[in-house]
Structure formats: C-alpha cells, structure tokens
Design goal:
This protein has one domain. Helices cover 82% and strands 0% of the residues. The chain is built from 18 helices and no strands. Helix 13 packs antiparallel against helix 15. It is globular, with a radius of gyration of 21 Å. Keywords: Cell membrane, Membrane, Transmembrane, Transmembrane helix, Transport. Pfam families: MatE (PF01554). It is a multi-pass membrane protein. It comes from Blautia obeum.
C-alpha cells in the first residue's frame, strides 16, 4: 500500500515549516469561503439586490452553525496532533474514533434543532418579512446538509493534524468548481432561486467529504481504524470535549456577536444588508491569511507541545506574529483603497447606494486589522497547547463588546456607528489572551530550564 508521508513539524526551520503548511491552508480556506461567496455573486448578478441581501444576511448565522462544528473538529484534531507529535499512534487512532462518534452526535442534534427553530431564529434576527421565505428556504437546506459539513470538517482536520494541508485543498478546489457549475445551472437555467444556491453548496461539500474519506483510506494507513479503536476508554471523550467544546463555543460566541451586529444592520433595510454582506465577504477573503496562519499555529504548537519542544513553540509564535502584523498593513491598504472595486464582484456598479455602504464599513474598521491578526496568533497558540478556556473567554469579551456597541448605537445613530462593533470586539478579545499566553509560556519555559 502506498503510504503518504506525514509532515512532522517538530524538526526543521519553524518559519519554513509554518509558511509551507499555511499556504495550502490559506488556499483551502479561500475555496471553503468560495461556497457562500459564489452563492452571493450568482444571486446578486442574476436575481438582484434582494437575493444578495437574503443570502448575505445568513452569513453570520452560517458562521454560528458551521463554526461550532469547525471548532469542535479543530479541538479534537489538536489532541490527535499532540498524540502524533508524541509518536503515540495507537492512542491517536483511538481519539480519531472517539471524535467520529462525537461529531456524528452533534451534527444530528444540530440538524434537528435548527430545522425546528429555523423561522423563529430568523425573526429574532429582524429578517425583513419580504425576504423571510428566501432566507428560511436557504437555511433549511443548509441545516439538512450539516452531516456532510461535519464529515468534511472532521476528516480534513485529521489530515491537517498530521501535517497535511495540501490534500484538503485539492478536494476543495474540485468541490468549489462543482459549486460554481451547480449555482449557474440551478439558478440561471433551472430557475430555482436562492434555494438552488443552498443545494449547490451542500452537494459540493458532500463531494469534499467523500474525497477526503477515499484519500485517507488509500494513502494514510496510520489513520486506518480497527474495532478496538472504537472501544470506549475512561476519560477519552471527556478529554476531547474539554478542548473541543471551548473551541466550538469560541467560534459560536463570536458568531453570536456577528448575528447581533447583523440584526442591527437589518434594521436599516435591504440596501444596507446587501452592502454589509458584500463588505463582510470581502473582509473574510482578505482575512483568510490570518485565519490560515492561526490554524497553522495550532497544528505546529500541538505537535511541538506533544514532543515537549516548548522552545520551538515560542519561536513559531513569535515569527508568526511578525508575519501577520506585516500582512495586516497590506490588508489595511487593500480595503481602504480598493474596497469599492471589490464590491463590484457582488453587485452592479450602478447600485451606488449599496457600494457606498461597503465603503463606509471598510473606512470604519480598516485601522483595527493588526488587532484582528493578533487574535489568531495568541488564541490558536493557546489552543494548540491544550488550553481552551481562556481563548473561549476571549470570545466572551468579543461578544460583550459587540453587544454594548449595538445596544448603544443601533437605530440611534448612523450605520458607521454599528460598524464600530467589530474593531471594539477585536480589541476586547485580546484583553485575556495576551497576558495568559505570556503567563503560560513563562511557566513552561521555566519548567524546561529546571
């Protein structure tokens, strides 16, 4: 059997390893974002502003739902990475099996719960009555496909835990192409409306999951599971949940904050919803460098923590932070000077009111990108070391900051006031993260010297 070479990040130049792992992660994250972005582009160009507003308004809610699954799978994969770094392969396979049990259970429960409460949730978000049918139909199909979303996130996380960030990228490229074709066929030619976008997304994600499963079966004997791996051991699931739940909650708490902001934006009407949606998607794409670096740090730190190489952990975090601060300056320039032109991807330039909303958002938040990039460095470093509670606390600080801004300004001042919720949230998240990272790292380095 052809054995795939794993990527051991406990040896070699940290910067080279981080960059080599991060680039496929970045491209993979771009293609994962591509699903909802293509939905919005096709809907905005072929159906109109209302369709863009309908799909765009679901972005924060989708982040809440898929973020929980992504956080869980990422947390479980950190345990897998630590076992891999420690060369405890039998334990690693056991934790893979337990992760499968847990992810299946969470996905089924979420599917049932969100389908039942679909419309009530949208009402709480102040979704306009004239868009409710489209939004509810779109999200209902997304909820029905959560099992395939969970399957892809889990299998891709296992591959990344072993240092393979390239394979998930290749599978996402394939499924992204399928998503584009299906979007155009189902909307332009079959006339299915926004629900066609949702079907395209679920089918494409299913393809990604199947590709990952087949690839692991053929190329990764180290991940092949036996009956004994599925036997319950005392404390195994607890260990996974202790790290996975805080990471899932951290994603979800952040998403709740964005849902609150989205609810405030919805008050201003479809034009603001569409412009805010376009700006958010552009920001998500540009911000994928930081997201990908964060995921890379988690894997790098997890493997080196498992191997007891805290000196390498310290090096990797420092170099990653420097690289992301440099990138944040590039981000600032891109959105300040080019935000208007990026918006043309989603809506016709003749829709000047919608474009202006995007410009207002970018001009209000661009200065805070260094703070946002810093979050991904310290949050993921702590998670990679196995500390989940303080990163989750950072998410709570984000939520409180966003909520306060929305309560103070929504409906009482201009749209720009609502936009300030994001910068304030990013700054607030760092309040617990930075001090705790240096405290933990100081403790570990002192233990190494003794």
């Amino acid at each position: 059997m052809n054995k795939q070479k794993t990527n051991d990040m406990t040896v070699g130049n940290p910067v080279r390893l981080i960059i080599r792992f991060m680039i496929p992660m970045f491209l993979g994250n771009i293609f994962q974002q591509f699903y909802n972005i293509v939905d919005s582009i096709v809907a905005g160009q072929f159906i109109g502003v209302d369709a863009l507003a309908a799909i765009g308004s679901t972005g924060s809610l989708m982040f809440f739902v898929t973020g929980w699954l992504n956080g869980l799978s990422s947390g479980f994969a950190i345990i897998v990475a630590q076992m891999f770094g420690a060369k405890k392969y039998d334990d690693m396979r056991h934790f893979v099996a337990m992760s499968i049990y847990l992810m299946f259970g969470f996905a089924v429960a979420m599917t049932i719960g969100f389908l039942v409460f679909n419309v009530p949730i949208l009402r709480l978000m102040n979704s306009p009555a004239d868009l409710m049918g489209d939004v509810a139909g779109y999200m209902g199909i997304i909820y029905a496909g959560l099992l395939v979303t969970a399957a892809y996130n889990t299998l891709a996380a296992f591959l990344r835990a072993l240092g393979d960030s390239k394979s998930p990228l290749y599978f996402l490229i394939i499924s992204a192409g399928i998503n584009v074709v299906l979007d155009i066929v189902l909307i332009r030619f079959a006339g299915m409306g926004v629900e066609g976008c949702a079907y395209a997304t679920v089918i494409a994600q299913g393809v990604s999951a199947i590709c990952c499963l087949v690839y692991i079966k053929k190329k990764y004997p180290i991940l092949h599971l036996e009956k004994k791996n599925f036997e319950l051991r005392k404390g195994s699931m607890s260990k996974l949940l202790i790290l996975g739940i805080p990471m899932g909650l951290q994603f979800s708490i952040t998403a709740i904050g964005t849902i609150i902001v989205q609810s405030a934006v919805n008050i201003y009407g479809a034009t603001y919803m569409a412009g805010f949606s376009a700006a958010g998607k552009i920001q998500n794409v540009i911000g994928m460098v930081a997201v990908s670096m964060g995921a890379t740090i988690a894997t790098y730190v997890g493997q080196n923590r498992g191997a007891g190489r805290m000196d390498r952990v310290k090096q990797g975090v420092k170099y990653s932070w420097i690289m992301l601060l440099v990138w944040s300056v590039v981000e600032m320039a891109l959105v300040y000077f080019g935000g208007k032109y990026f918006t043309y991807l989603f809506i016709s330039p003749s829709q000047t009111d919608v474009v202006q909303v995007s410009v207002i958002y970018f001009r209000t938040v661009f200065w805070a990108y260094p703070f946002l990039c810093t979050i991904f460095v310290f949050r993921n470093a702590l998670q990679g070391m196995g500390y989940g509670m303080v990163p989750m606390l950072g998410g709570v600080f984000e939520l409180v900051a966003r909520t306060l801004i929305v309560v103070l300004v929504a409906g009482r001042t201009t749209f720009a006031g609502v936009c300030l919720a994001d910068p304030m949230a990013w700054i607030a998240a760092l309040i617990p993260l930075i001090p705790y990272y240096y405290y933990v790292m100081g403790k570990h380095m002192k233990a190494m010297r003794q």
